[in-house]
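note to self: dont lose this again. the chain is below, predicted strucutre after it. 107 aa total, dont forget to put it in the shared folder this time
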Amino acid sequence: MQLPPKVTDRAFERLSEIGAAQQGKALRIAVEGGGCSGFQYEIALDAPADDDLVLEGQGERVVVDSVSLPFLSNAVIDFTEELIGARFVIENPNATSSCGCGTSFSM
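---
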């Protein structure tokens, strides 16, 4: 059974800090063909579309389109701050391997 991705409090907090909802935007998580491992994540601020799954928390929204959703079943969308920089990350149990870049994976 496919479950929708989960978004951590830390990710919603970061969206609030950058004022995404105030700009009428949501964090879009999409999966596209390409990248070093076969698929890659596209992460951007975007306006929600009619067929998006909308995940809401703390007044902020994360959206996933219907095509990308099966690839993100049970995934966790988080925000991390490391020495190399701060970024949104996706922990995806469906990925069989991933690339060091952190945005590409295979299934």
